[in-house]
Amino acid sequence: MRGNTWSAIDTEAADDDARRLATVMHVAFFVLLCSSLARFLMRHPGAPATPWVVALALALALLYVLGPVLGPKEDLAPRDPTAASRLWLAAVIGTWLTLVVLAPSFGWCAVPLFYTGLRSLRTRSAILLVSLITVFVVAAQVQLRLRFGFDPNLLFAPPAVAAVATAVFIHSQRQAVRLRAVITDLVRTRRELAATERREGALAERQRLSMEIHDTLAQGLSSQQMLFQAADRLWAGDPETARRHVRSAASIAEHNLAEARRFVHDLAPADLAGGGSLGDALRALAARETTDTLRIRFHQDSAPAAPLPDRIQSALLRIAQGALANVREHADATTAALTLTHLDDQVVLDIADNGRGFVPTERTGDGVRGHGLPAIRARVRGLGGTLTIESTPGEGTVLTAAIPLEPVP
C-alpha cells in the first residue's frame, strides 16, 4: 500500500511538471498569435487580405482552444496519436501555414507549435513535422526580406531554435519515460519485499507456535503419559502411590487445559496470567513437575529491581519448561534445580540436573531431533541473549540462559 502511494505521488509530480510546461507553451502561443496579428494590422492597415488574416487568426485560436478535447494529453509520456488528435493537429498546422503565407510575421508562432507537434506524434513523425515547419518559416521570412538584402539570421536562426526546442523536449520525454520505468520497478520491488516479509513473518509465527506447543501442551501430555504408565505398574502392589500419580496427571491435565485456553486468547503462559511474577511461575513449575522419581527445586538469588518485561518472563518460563522436559525424557535424573539470578544488566536462568549427561557438540548441532534444545536456542537468540550448555557424560548437565535487560541493537 505504501509503495502504491509513493508511486502515485511521483507520477502526479511528473504530470504536474508536464502540465506546467504545457501551460507556459499555451500562453506563449496566444501571446505570439496576438502580437503577430497586431503587427500585421499596424504594418498593413487596409490591406485586402486583412479580413482573411483576422478570420484565420480567430479560427486558429479556436482550434487551439479545442486542444484539451481533441489534442494530446498534458504529459510527457509518448502515446499513439488518435484519429481525432491527428485531425486536430492537421487543422491547426494547415490554418497556421495559410496565415504565414498571408502574413509571414505569424511564423513566430512556430515555437509553441513545435511543442504541440512533439506532444501529438511519435518522435520520428514529430521531428519530420518540426523540420517541415522550420523550412516553411525560413522560406516565408527569406522571401519577405529579400528586398532588404540577405540576412543570415533568417536562414540559420529558425533551424537552431527548432533544434534546441526539439532536443529539450525529446530529452524531457525520455527522462519522463525512464522515471516511470524506475517508479514501476521500485513499486514491484517493494511489493516483492512486502510479500517476502509476510512469508518470513508467517514462517516465524509457525515456528513460534510450534515452540509454544512443544513447551506446554506436548510436555504436559508427555508427563501425563509417564505418570499413567507408572500408575498402571503400581496399581496392584501400591494403589496409594498409583492414585498419587493419577492425581498428579490430573493436575497437569488441568494446567494444560488452562494453557490451551490461553492459546485461544493471547498465547501468554498461564502461570504468568493475572500479573504473577516469573519467580512464582518457576516455583509453581518446579512443584508441578516434581514426581517420586524426579525432585525439582527452585531458588531465586535476588529480587529484580524492576518488573521484567512480559516478553522476557514468558520466554524464560518456556525455556525452563523445555529444559525440564528434556531432563525428564532424556537425562534419567533424580534431581534438578532451577536458579533465577537478577543482575544489573541481565537476568540469568540456570537449569541443572544430575542425569546421564551428554557431549553438547553431539546434541546441539544440525542433527538434533525434536524441538527441545533448538527451540530453547531460538528463544534465547530472539531476545539477544546467550545460551551455554555444560555437560559431561555421567556427570549431569547445566543449561544457562542469559537475557540482557536492555534491547540489543
From TrEMBL:
Histidine kinase domain mapped to chain residues: 316-407
Family matches, as CDD domains: HATPase_UhpB-NarQ-NarX-like
Annotated transmembrane regions: 20-42, 49-67, 87-114, 126-146, 152-170
Instruction: Tell me where it mainly resides.
Output: cytoplasm
> Which Pfam families does the UniProt entry name for this protein?
HATPase_c (PF02518), HisKA_3 (PF07730)
The family database entries (InterPro entries) matched by this protein are listed as: HATPase_C_sf, HATPase_dom, His_kinase_dom, Sensor_HK_TwoCompSys, Sig_transdc_His_kin-like_C, Sig_transdc_His_kin_sub3_dim/P, Sig_transdc_His_kinase_ChrS
> What GO molecular functions are on record for this protein?
kinase activity
Please list the cofactors this protein needs.
Answer: [4Fe-4S] cluster
Q: Spell out the protein name for this chain.
A: Oxygen sensor histidine kinase NreB
> From what organism does this protein derive?
Streptomyces clavifer
